Amino acid sequence: MAPHHRSVWDLVLVVDISASMVAWYPTVDAFARKAHELSLFTDVHTVRLYSQANGGPDATVDNAAAQRANLHTPDGGGRRKVVFVITDGVGHAWSYGSLWPRLNAWGRHHTLAILHVLPHQEWTRTGVSTRRLKLRSPHPGSPNSEMAHRPEEVDATEKPAEPDEFTDREVVIPVLEMRKRWLQQWSRLVLSNLWVPHQAITVPAQYRSPTHLPHPVESGDDVDAGDRVNSFRGSVSPTAFELATLLAAAPLNRHIMQLVQAELLPESGPEELAALLTSNLLTAVNAPSDTDPHDRITFEFRPQVRQFLLAAGTSPQTLRVVKTVERYLSPHNDAVSGISQRIENRIAAESPAITYDNFPYMQVEYAVLTALSGPHGEAAKGLGARLEQYLYSNGHSAR
Fold first, then answer.
1. 26 Cα distance to chain centroid
2. Total domain count for the chain?
3. Domain limits at 266?
């Protein structure tokens, strides 16, 4: 559909790149490519949003990209803006509300919506808590600050809340799944002056500290690893749990995760990987980003979780993962070169000398040998002793 408004339109994709969003990068890339193919927009801009800046509740954006897109300027640089914020709502800034003033400012001047990558029924587990409202745009492509809203169940004769009646100059923002039906409903809203039902949030102009600070359930390392794994198994699909058992045999970053998915569990998708990334089984290390090299470890299982997951898998599966990772990583990292031969022949004593850089990879090799047990027991014992010696020699300073 061509825009009904005479001014020129740009699309701005504000992409959340918190650690848990790595599962959705291929989806976001595909969405951006489709947007570029449309004749509706003059330009399509991408702006990174850091909703977990420094691991805390603050949020930042890539200001250079935002300035190029004229995202912060009220007149949009002379062009009307459609702004989609793409997120899973997991970053701390969503739960703490520190993003609200920024979203409020964008919604005052542009047409703004949040595209939630998770299904609607899972939004309650995230920091984007919506309610169902009826919204009306006074003219096609109006900014969110001009939208009226009312609860869906309110009688049509009751006076709706107009924008100037919002508390603290709140702005209402539609939230939708990245699905055709949801986008069609949103299009009805912004291209007409009809009342359209939508899941939405209202955000204030000023940051308000929450009265109850959210925190991950059972996030501490004092939680028993077996209980942690059993709880995860009971809350996700069998495919998601199988994916977790496969990834337990690998050093973790988004490239390796997606490789193992594609080659060994092709029936799984971003939803299954997201279930693991948003669980309390993993912790992010080394500030994962969308530009990480292929061999940089950016995620690690919490203590003993890897062992419990490997025990829930099978030996043939574990060996397939090891061989896949070796084929993929050995040209870039000597630590995994020859790992499948060492494991199959139970000669871990011939593994590379342990260094600060390869220590995490050797820990994975040790976990695999331990899980295979039986004839691999001696090799596991030998490698375990070398790891302990390295830790002792370096004052327990290994990461």
1. 12
2. 2
3. 225-393
Residue 394 confidence (pLDDT): 81
> Across 191-259, where does the E strand assignment appear?
196-203
Query: What's the rounded Cα separation, in Å, for the pair 363 and 123?
Result: 35
Span of 242-246, 250-254, 288-292, 309-313 with lowest mean pLDDT: 288-292
Q: What pLDDT shows up at residue 80?
A: 87
H/E element, 317:
helix 315-329
Q: Listing from the earlier edge strand, what are the strands of the sheet with 60-61?
A: 60-61, 43-50, 9-16, 80-87, 111-116, 171-177, 196-203, 131-136, 148-151
Tokens read off for 105: 């400012």
- Judge if 269 and 306 occupy the same domain: yes
Nearest to 116 by CA among 241, 316, 270, 305: 270
Q: Are residues 59 and 148 in the same domain?
A: yes
Alpha carbon 379 to its chain centroid, in Å, reads 37
CA atoms of 10 and 195, how far apart (whole Å): 25
Amino acid in the structure at residue 241 = F
- Sole residue written with tokens 């690893």: 225
What type of residue sits at position 180?
A: K
Residue-wise pLDDT for 353-398, tens only, equals 899 888 999 999 999 999 998 888 888 898 899 999 989 888 765 4
Q: Is residue 278 part of a domain?
A: yes
Inter-CA distances, 95 with 51, 76, 123, 200, 288, Å? 10, 29, 12, 16, 20
Q: What is the helix (H) or strand (E) element at residue 282, kind and residue range?
A: strand 282-284
Answer whether residue 288 is part of any domain: yes
pLDDT tens for 191-249 read 998 999 999 999 998 766 554 444 433 444 557 999 999 999 999 999 999 999 999 99
For residue 127, give the DSSP letter: S
Q: Are 175 and 114 in contact (CB under 8 A)?
A: yes
CB 298 within 8 A of CB 284: yes
In this structure, the answer to whether residues 159 and 87 fall within a common structural domain is: yes
How far apart are the C-alpha atoms of 105 and 69, rounded to whole Å? 15
Q: What residues contact 373, with CB distance under 8 A and at least 6 apart?
A: 380
Helices and strands: H and E segment counts in the chain: 14, 11
Whole-number Å distance between alpha carbons of 68 and 56: 27
> Same domain, yes or no, for 170 and 280?
no
Angle at 48 between CA 46 and CA 49, to 5 degrees: 135
Q: What are the tokens at 224?
A: 């028993």
